[in-house]
Amino acid sequence: MLKELMQKAGTIGVVLAGLAVVLILFFGFNRVNEYEVAVKRNPVTGAVGENPYRQGLYHSILRSWTKAEKRSLLKGEAVWSLGLIANQNATRALAELYESSRGIERRLVLQAIAKSPSPAAIPVFEAALEADDDPALERLAVDGLIRIADDAAAAELLLAICAGGRDHESGLLAARALLERKDPRATPCVLSRLREDMDLRHGFGPLAEFMLTETPLIGSESTASSLEALAEEVPAPALEHKLRAAARGVRMVRDYGDDAQPWIELLGKGTPMDVDLAIRKLGDLANPRAISPLKQLFGRIEPERAHAIPRALGDIGSERATTFLIALLTDTLYRVDSLSRARDEAAIALAKITREPHAADALLRAYELD
Hints:
Blueprint: H1 2-41, H2 43-47, H3 52-66, H4 73-85, H5 88-100, H6 103-113, H7 122-130, H8 136-147, H9 152-164, H10 168-180, H11 187-201, H12 206-214, H13 221-233, H14 237-256, H15 260-266, H16 272-285, H17 291-297, H18 308-316, H19 322-330, H20 340-353, H21 357-366
Helix pairs in contact: 1-3, 3-4, 4-5, 4-6, 5-6, 6-8, 7-8, 8-10, 9-10, 9-11, 10-11, 10-12, 11-13, 13-14, 15-16, 16-18, 17-18, 18-20, 19-20, 19-21
């Protein structure tokens, strides 16, 4: 009797164990399918979630979709989603795909990689710059390199593009990025790109204009001499004036140095070009003594130039500017079209300076966000 009961219990145990395996497999695979549906609905949110298991599963699903042999909407969405996720794992998955892709698909993959600030993307950008079959890859590589901050390898590639890039616009973008990083090694290629832009347009485009205003902050005496030599060659008086003003700015930066006081004094007595240069220099110096003079200057200069002031305050980074920046965003006095750029710069500066709730509320009110 006891023996029969034990045999029946063993049989039931085997059946229950088999049933458990079936249930685990069924619900496990259905769980994966649920995740696949979720990825299709919102791939980026799922892949950057806090749950490590879910995050890894989402990455695996997206990565598997990129391995489809033919182009498809799903594959394109997976590539783009990995680009938006922009972490190191996503960048590596896209880098593998870049090696095997061609034509339009390769552009799409590189465009997705260009959204990543990860240094893991640099070898891909370097390969793209060496490709002779598609000039568009150079522009996309520059876009990506600009996002990678404080990386020596990225800076070297930007210098190479600035000096010898095939695409003129890519060279200008690289030059602008180097000027924004205050890299003095950029001055020779900046001067070369200025000359090239002037020859192509018989004037200066927006990027070249920006380069003229920023070059004084990193230029040397030889830079000033080169700008004056270039001014001698141009027939248009307006272009000559801009080049000579830039040369004068180079010498002013070297003469005034890094003491904030002469730059603060220049805010009240300089020419418009001098004042604009002083605003940018005070932002670079990040001396809180400049906050009050910069705020007082806001109502005294043309609205079209005023955006430089909140940008400088953001670079200074002191919370003493918070009240002023909030007022720029929320006070109806400043809600005019001519100050729209200044208000945008105020929003960026506020986000850099503080994480206080009242500042966040001001941003939400200013842009009518829920």
